[in-house]
Amino acid sequence: TQLLEQSPQFLSIQEGENLTVYCNSSSVFSSLQWYRQEPGEGPVLLVTVVTGGEVKKLKRLTFQFGDARKDSSLHITAAQPGDTGLYLCAGVAGNTPLVFGKGTRLSVIA
Amino acid sequence: NAGVMQNPRHLVRRRGQEARLRCSPMKGHSHVYWYRQLPEEGLKFMVYLQKENIIDESGMPKERFSAEFPKEGPSILRIQQVVRGDSAAYFCASSPRPGGEQYFGPGTRLTVT
C-alpha cells in the first residue's frame, strides 16, 4: 500500500513569510500532483510533476519532485491571506488509483 | 467551459434511506473517479469508471455501495441503507484519459441523521 505523508499537518504564519510543506513516501511514483482545497469546495489542481528532480514555478509557488520520485515539496514565497487552504499531494504509480496525503492546512494571517 | 458538476451539494438522509449522488464530468472526459473525504482527512479513492464500465472498485465497500456511469447521463454513486458512518463529503473527478490529470467537482456533503 502506498502512503503519502504530508508535513506539517497545520501551519499558521503571518502574511509575507515564506513556508515549505512536504510530501514524503517510501514508494516511487510516476507522477505527483499538488492540489489546493478551500472549505466547502473540491480540490483544485495546481501542478503535476513527472520527472525526478523537476522544479516547477507557479507565480510565488515552487514545486519540486525528488530525484528518486518518492517525495515532493511546495515552497510559497511571501505568503498572502489568499493562499489559505488545505494543500494536498497525490501520487500516481502505474495503474493504481491516485493516492492522496492527508494534507497541510495553511492559515495566512494578515 | 463547464467544469465537473455534482448534485446535490448537500444531502440529508435518515438512517436506512438511500442516497443517490450525481456527477457530470467535464465535456470530453469519459473517465470518472469517486472519492470520499472525512473531516481533517485526505481523499480516499472509491471507484473508477469509464463509460458503461467499472474499471477499478477496489476502494468501494462491498455492501450497500454501487456506482454506474451510463452511456447517456451522469455517473451515479448510490448508497443503500445509509448509516451514520456514511456521513462525509463525496467528490467526483473526471479525466480525459486513463492516468490523466483529474479535475474535481465541488462535492456532495452527505449527512446521515
Descriptive account of the structure:
The complex is a heterodimer of chains A (110) and B (113). Chain A is an all-beta fold. Chain A is built from no helices and eleven strands. In chain A, the strands form two sheets. In chain A, strands 2, 4, 5, 9, 10 and 11 form a six-stranded mixed β-sheet that branches. The mean pLDDT of chain A is 93. Chain B has strands spanning 5-7, 10-13, 19-24, 31-37, 43-50, 53-56, 65-68, 75-79, 88-95, 103-104, 108-112. Chain B is mainly β. Helix content of chain B is 0%, strand content 50%. The N and C termini of chain B lie far apart (37 Å). Chain B is globular, with a radius of gyration of 13 Å. In chain B, the strands form two sheets. In chain B, strands 2, 4, 5, 6, 9, 10 and 11 form a seven-stranded mixed β-sheet that branches. Chain B has a four-stranded antiparallel β-sheet with strand order 1-3-8-7, with no helix packed on it. The mean pLDDT of chain B is 93. At the A-B interface, strand 5, strand 9 and strand 10 of A face strand 5 and strand 10 of B.
